[in-house]
């Protein structure tokens, strides 16, 4: 058995291992698992339960000797590379002892060894109990019991609690100890290996000895049974019966031989789908069960369902007790933890739970991280899976423990339903059976089905395989059913990905440079056009897909697509997936049909099932039968009930000539040859290529697998150092990605390039940043408190600040708005209080995320975290020496990366917490020169944002400022302001209005620069001001604060016609056309963004250089100057035109129908605006007309009408734009582009208009 681990091996099994009690070395306690139990016990003992807890729960360590764990050893001296490791994985609990009074059933479990390069070897172990024959071991156990009972007596005597003692009496009891036989194999033929082991065990427990010595069977399985070739089946002989295994062809889904039925029965469809979603999003997953095989089955099933994607991170389905420190790993992992008979989840201390999916398999329970997006088409998907399960007699709800469901179901068989259906005993559909009545999920599904109009009558129940198959299947019926159920469920899952990514190839970005530079810059490269792909997807898919596209598994999948051009070189999963995608595209000729959210069921289950049945009914290969070996006389004997140490000299070497070992050589040669050709194609030599593929695999994974073999302190320290480096690298990549996306988008809004980020995507990136912060804060924690390590640290800091009354917090920030508003205090504690006061956020994880979002919006994240970490005494108290937060250089770099977020504006708090109450502060700033000191009227304001508006708020005229609290208004867009025209001096010149959000600190400036009052300016008593966010400390703010009266501030759009000779230079026709084009362009771009991404349309209509301003320029161009000192407004011209049109209509001048309709519309809108009860001036009315015209797609008609109107000839010079037919026609064409958009106006713009 000199063959070590070898996945290229062509043998069915690599080697055979026996583990158990080594009587020579005696009883050695299993220190590592004992230590873990001791830590758990002391943790519990130090808790609130007090001293009395020792007697009961504390028994973890003070356990009776029969419940303790002892070291198991590899018994046979075979040439094995990691004997300690095998003992640890074959018998993860160590040795257990029992007496005749205990249950001693054999127990099968499998395990997996994943090496650092990602390759795997599978182990299959059968553990059973044998009687202890060694007198020394029995007396040692008796001694341990005497010591234990004396200890327990002392403890309980002091606490005064009565108890009974566990006991082992050497004279009365028979002692049994666990032993394990194990097969190591390159491929996971779980059912075949289980049969081999069970038959070997049966051979030593049955009354009759087996036909041949056990060595013959083990030798046969190790050296004479080959792996079945691809797409073929193989039969070989066990001790008592044939063993069958089959291997899928290259066109089928990869090999999977674990019973998926078990997973669905243990968890139920809905929980499985939630767990599947967590795995796809690379969330940390911890499986928890007292059965090792359940851990393995669930882990392997979930990863198998991911096809064509592969889990890229730490994968340890059975975590030995010695590796519990690995739960501290700040990387995605999928691990299985043995519950050690502890049913209570609350006693399990986990280092970090903020982004953990915890699956309690035995109790049918799953704990999900917050904000988990829903898998696309979840309900229809659940229904499709449920149909498959019901056909095999599995309840979609799973067998919930402690209910009578499972017992009823045990007797349920699909064939009975079929015969009942034939006899008319079932009401049409199998869903109406017991399963439906007992089951909420199915009830919900039925309701969905009714809504969608699908008939459940068509649901076929699987008929019993034996009734409709002519061919004799060579395996037992249960095994066939397992294969059928597995393949059907897997096909349903694979079909989802095929449908969702049917056109993924279109979005793969092929590198323009050679492979060498592609690899060296791989971290910086985008390999997939995510934005375009997402813009093609139905909206309900986006929350899930935007996060999935960010995962390592998706990146690796696309990398392998780029790496392997030819079909021949493609990885198996990719080749199968691409073939399926091609098939779908042939069926759906019009690709756009793939982009609808219409659910398309799986159609190729039957073919996949037939392929398996074909292989199982006709065996392609039969292996050599076991035979007598060349053994000395007396060898090969055994005692009934005891599994012997096999003869190592016979088993250590295989046959000298073995066609199976030879067969691998040409295959390897062919593979090398093909790699060589491909390497020539890429101009790379083979070593380079292998290096690149390895690097590609390792990209983004700081550490793939724990080294199970070596657990020295130096290795653990090195692992932790890798974690620290990995976290820093991840932080660098995340901040860079977020900045590039955000800056890219802002550049687009400034008119450079194309947009590439959506709100969903921004949310995804921020959520992943919160997850990274949680992982950093969880690394190396001394004691975990609460589910969020970050929030726990903040609370400790808050407590210390209050305790020591530290004034570390009160930095005054430079005023955002110059002298207008008092400066805002920068306070970490105040920001925490804001979050604590939000009733909607219930959990610590939610509070931590809200605090991160608020800090990012305020551009204080790096500063706040630096402040928290500057309390080194607290950090030392909370964290171990190796923790990331105690590595000073890395911590500094990390804070520096976070500082870069200050370069861009985020609204990630405002846009997410839309229903919270927020305090706002409003200040009205009158002109300094013509100030409001004599002003007698009563002013009011109404603030509007993207989410809501306040209604009219009275402003005290002596202070001109007001603070109020209301539901989040979102980004602020407009302020309506005015006064009631009361008192002697009701004329008021307002420079601007400032509004500040009291939580986020965002300050908005609404420039005015106009009079409000009758008989002054345009006679307006109210104005609508359009606002802009003030950025801290920009020079333009200082300049804008000193705006002289009557001069238009840069943000002022409604400009009166300037008559005086000193007026500003007028724009020429080219500039005006450009202005109109820019304004229209802004609106077109607005509507081409996804709906959730659109900014303020009001700003584009009424803001600086918006549509109103642009059309103002058009109508002002060439306007004739009337006599001095009298302002003439565009509205005056429009009113005259209205009078002309109305009189022409009455004098019945014959015009075509279209013309009359346009005239009627124009006059109706003019009348409605003129008769509004609002006191808006002439410029305000013009703005309203433009907005309504844009909304109803009438602007281009009105421009045509006015250009031909005789009033225009009277009031405009010959050079005016409105008199140039070619310019007017081009203006009409530009305005017509607005027709395809559905423009919705903000309420503040059209208040009081009934059209």
TrEMBL record:
Pfam families cross-referenced by the UniProt entry: dDENN, DENN, PLAT, RUN, uDENN
Top-rank taxon, per record: Eukaryota
Any Gene Ontology CC annotation: trans-Golgi network
Domain PLAT: start-end pairs: 918-1026
GO biological process assignments: retrograde transport, endosome to Golgi
Keywords, ordered alphabetically: Guanine-nucleotide releasing factor, Membrane, Phosphoprotein, Repeat
GO function terms (MF aspect): guanyl-nucleotide exchange factor activity; small GTPase binding
InterPro entries per record: cDENN_dom, dDENN_dom, DEN5A/B, DENN_C, PLAT/LH2_dom, PLAT/LH2_dom_sf, PLAT_RAB6IP1, Run_dom
CDD domains: PLAT_RAB6IP1
Keyword Membrane set for record: yes
Compartments reported by the entry: Membrane
Domain spans labelled RUN: 760-914, 1098-1246
Sequence ranges assigned to domain UDENN in this UniProt record: 48-571
Family statement drawn from the similarity comment of this UniProt entry: Belongs to the RAB6IP1 family.
Protein name according to UniProt: UDENN domain-containing protein
């Amino acid at each position: 058995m000199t063959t070590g681990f070898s996945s290229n091996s062509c043998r069915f099994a690599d080697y055979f291992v026996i583990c158990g009690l080594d009587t020579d070395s005696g009883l050695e306690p299993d220190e590592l698992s004992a230590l873990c139990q001791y830590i758990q016990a002391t943790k519990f003992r130090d808790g609130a339960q007090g001293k009395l807890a020792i007697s009961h729960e504390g028994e973890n360590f003070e356990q009776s000797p029969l419940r303790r764990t002892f070291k198991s050893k590899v018994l046979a001296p075979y040439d094995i590379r990691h004997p300690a490791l095998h003992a640890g994985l074959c018998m993860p609990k160590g040795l257990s002892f029992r007496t005749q009074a205990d249950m001693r059933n054999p127990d099968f479990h499998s395990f997996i060894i994943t090496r650092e390069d990602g390759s795997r070897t599978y182990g299959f172990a059968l553990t059973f109990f044998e009687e202890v024959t060694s007198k020394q071991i029995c007396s040692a156990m008796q001694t341990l019991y005497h010591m234990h009972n004396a200890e327990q007596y002392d403890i309980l005597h002091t606490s005064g609690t009565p108890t009974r003692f566990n006991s082992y009496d050497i004279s009365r009891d028979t002692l049994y100890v666990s032993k394990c036989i194990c097969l190591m194999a390159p491929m996971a033929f779980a059912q075949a290996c289980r049969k081999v082991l069970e038959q070997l065990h049966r051979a030593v427990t049955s009354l009759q000895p087996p036909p041949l010595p056990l060595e013959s069977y083990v030798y046969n399985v190790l050296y004479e049974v080959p792996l079945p070739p691809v797409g073929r089946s193989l039969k070989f002989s066990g001790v008592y019966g044939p063993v069958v295994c089959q291997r899928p062809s290259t066109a089928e889904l990869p090999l999977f031989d674990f019973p998926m039925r078990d997973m669905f029965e243990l968890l139920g469809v809905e929980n499985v789908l939630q767990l599947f979603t967590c795995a796809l999003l690379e969330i940390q997953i911890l499986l928890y069960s007292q059965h090792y095989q359940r851990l393995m089955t669930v882990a392997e099933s979930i990863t198998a369902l991911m096809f064509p994607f592969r889990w890229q991170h730490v994968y340890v389905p059975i975590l030995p007790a010695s590796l519990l420190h690995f739960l501290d790993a700040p990387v995605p992992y999928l691990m299985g933890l043995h519950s050690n008979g502890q049913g209570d989840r609350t006693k399990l201390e986990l280092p970090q739970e903020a982004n953990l999916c915890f699956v309690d398999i035995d109790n049918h329970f799953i704990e999900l991280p917050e904000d988990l997006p829903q898998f696309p088409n979840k309900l229809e998907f659940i229904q499709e899976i449920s149909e498959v399960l019901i056909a095999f007699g599995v309840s979609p709800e799973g067998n919930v423990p402690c209910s009578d469901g499972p017992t009823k179901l045990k007797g349920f068989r699909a064939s009975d339903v079929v015969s009942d259906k034939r006899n008319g005993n079932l009401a049409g559909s199998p869903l109406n059976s017991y399963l439906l009545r007992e089951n909420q999920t199915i009830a919900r599904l039925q309701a969905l089905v009714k809504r969608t109009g699908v008939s459940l009558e068509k649901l076929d129940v699987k008929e019993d395989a034996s009734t409709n198959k002519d061919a004799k299947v060579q395996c037992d019926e249960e095994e066939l059913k397992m294969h059928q159920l597995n393949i059907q469920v897997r096909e349903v899952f694979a079909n989802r990905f095929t449908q969702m990514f049917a056109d993924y190839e279109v979005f793969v970005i092929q590198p323009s440079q050679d492979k060498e530079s592609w690899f060296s810059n791989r971290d910086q490269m985008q390999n997939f056009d995510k934005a375009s792909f997402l813009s093609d997807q139905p909206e309900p898919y986006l929350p899930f897909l935007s996060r999935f596209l960010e995962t390592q598994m998706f990146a690796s999948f696309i990398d392998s697509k780029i790496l392997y051009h030819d079909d021949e070189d493609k990885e198996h999963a990719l080749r199968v997936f691409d073939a399926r995608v091609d098939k779908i595209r042939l069926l759906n000729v019009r690709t756009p049909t793939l982009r609808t959210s219409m659910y398309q069921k799986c159609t190729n289950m039957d073919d996949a099932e037939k392929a398996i049945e074909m292989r199982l009914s006709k065996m392609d290969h039969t292996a050599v039968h076991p035979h007598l070996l060349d053994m000395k006389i007396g060898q090969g004997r055994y005692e009934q009930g005891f599994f012997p140490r096999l003869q190592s000299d016979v088993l250590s070497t295989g046959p000298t000539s073995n066609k199976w070992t030879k067969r691998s050589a040409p295959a390897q040669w062919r593979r090398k040859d093909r790699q060589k050709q491909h390497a020539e194609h890429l101009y790379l030599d083979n070593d380079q290529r292998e290096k690149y593929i390895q690097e590609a695999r390792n990209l983004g994974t700081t550490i793939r697998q724990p080294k199970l073999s070596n657990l020295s302190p130096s290795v653990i320290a090195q692992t932790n150092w890798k974690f620290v480096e990995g976290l820093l690298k991840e932080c660098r990549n995340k901040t860079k990605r977020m900045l590039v996306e955000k800056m890219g988008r802002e550049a687009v809004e400034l008119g450079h390039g194309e947009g590439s980020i959506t709100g969903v995507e921004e949310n995804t990136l921020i959520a992943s940043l919160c997850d990274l912060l949680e992982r950093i804060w969880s690394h190396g924690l001394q004691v975990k408190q609460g589910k969020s390590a970050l929030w726990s640290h903040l609370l400790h800091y808050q407590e210390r600040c209050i305790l020591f009354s530290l004034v570390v917090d009160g930095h005054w920030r430079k005023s955002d708005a110059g002298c207008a508003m008092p400066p805002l205090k920068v306070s970490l504690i105040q920001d925490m209080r804001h979050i604590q006061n939000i009733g909607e956020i219930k959990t610590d994880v939610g509070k931590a995320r809200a605090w991160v979002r608020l800090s990012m919006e305020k551009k204080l994240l790096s500063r706040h975290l630096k402040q928290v970490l500057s309390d080194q005494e607290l950090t030392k108290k909370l964290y171990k020496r190796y923790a990331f937060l105690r590595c000073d250089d890395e911590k500094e770099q990390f804070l520096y990366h976070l500082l870069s977020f200050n370069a861009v504006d985020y609204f990630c708090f405002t846009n997410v917490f839309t229903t919270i109450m927020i305090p706002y502060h409003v200040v009205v700033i009158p002109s300094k020169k013509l100030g409001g000191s004599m002003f007698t009227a009563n002013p009011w304001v109404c603030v509007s944002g993207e989410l809501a508006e306040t209604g009219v708020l009275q402003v005290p005229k002596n202070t001109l400022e007001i603070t109020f609290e209301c539901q989040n208004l979102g980004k602020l867009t407009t302020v309506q302001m005015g006064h009631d025209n009361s008192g002697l001096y009701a004329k008021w010149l307002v420079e601007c209005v400032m509004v500040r959000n009291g939580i986020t600190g965002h300050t908005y400036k609404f420039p005015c620069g106009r009079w409000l009052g009758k008989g002054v300016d345009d006679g307006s008593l109210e104005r609508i001001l359009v606002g802009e966010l003030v950025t801290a400390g920009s020079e333009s703010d200082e300049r804008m604060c000193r705006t002289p009266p009557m001069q238009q501030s840069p943000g002022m759009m409604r400009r009166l016609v300037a008559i005086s000779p000193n007026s500003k230079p007028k724009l020429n026709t080219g500039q005006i056309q450009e202005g109109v084009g820019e304004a229209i362009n802004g609106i077109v771009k607005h509507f081409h963004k996804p709906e959730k991404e659109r900014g303020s349309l009001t700003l584009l209509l009424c803001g600086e250089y918006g549509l109103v301003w642009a059309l103002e320029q058009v109508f002002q161009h060439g306007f004739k100057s009337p006599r001095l000192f009298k302002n003439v407004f565009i509205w005056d011209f429009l009113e005259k035109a209205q009078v002309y049109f109305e009189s022409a209509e009455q004098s019945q001048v014959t015009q075509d129908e279209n013309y009359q309709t346009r005239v009627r519309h124009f006059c109706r809108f003019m009348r409605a605006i003129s008769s509004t009860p609002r006191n808006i001036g002439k410029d305000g009315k013009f703005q309203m007309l433009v907005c309504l015209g844009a909304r109803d797609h009438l602007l281009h008609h009105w421009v045509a009408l006015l250009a031909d109107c005789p009033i225009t000839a009277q009031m405009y010079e010959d050079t005016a734009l409105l008199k140039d037919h070619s310019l007017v026609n081009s203006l009409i064409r530009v305005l017509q582009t607005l027709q395809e958009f559905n423009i919705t106006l903000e309420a503040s713009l059209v208040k009081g208009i009934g059209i």
